[in-house]
Design goal:
Helices cover 98% and strands 0% of the residues. By secondary structure, the chain is an all-alpha fold. The protein has one domain.
């Protein structure tokens, strides 16, 4: 009976060692996953900054283009007014 108890104790100790080893492996894997997630979050953040920067550049380019077009139209209007005034004076 004592021999059976000793054998059971050895078995339990072996199982405890195995479970502790598995736990350590799980903790290591969890840490690796956390690091991967952190890296992915950094990548996403960096990519979002690039996208936002491009969007800002595109908005600014569109704004400049629209301002140039407005200035062009204003110039054309002024030229048309001037031409109309000249036509009235010469008529």
């Amino acid at each position: 009976e004592s021999e059976i108890a000793k054998q059971n104790e050895k078995t339990l100790k072996s199982e405890i060692v195995l479970v502790r080893s598995k736990l350590a492996n799980c903790e290591t894997e969890l840490l690796q996953c956390k690091n991967k997630i952190r890296k992915l979050m950094e990548d996403i953040h960096n990519e979002q900054r690039v996208v936002n920067s491009r969007q800002q550049e595109n908005r600014q380019a569109l704004e400049r283009s629209m301002l140039a077009e407005v200035e062009n139209l204003q110039t054309q209007i002024q030229q048309a007014k001037h031409a109309t005034e000249i036509n009235h004076l010469t008529a």
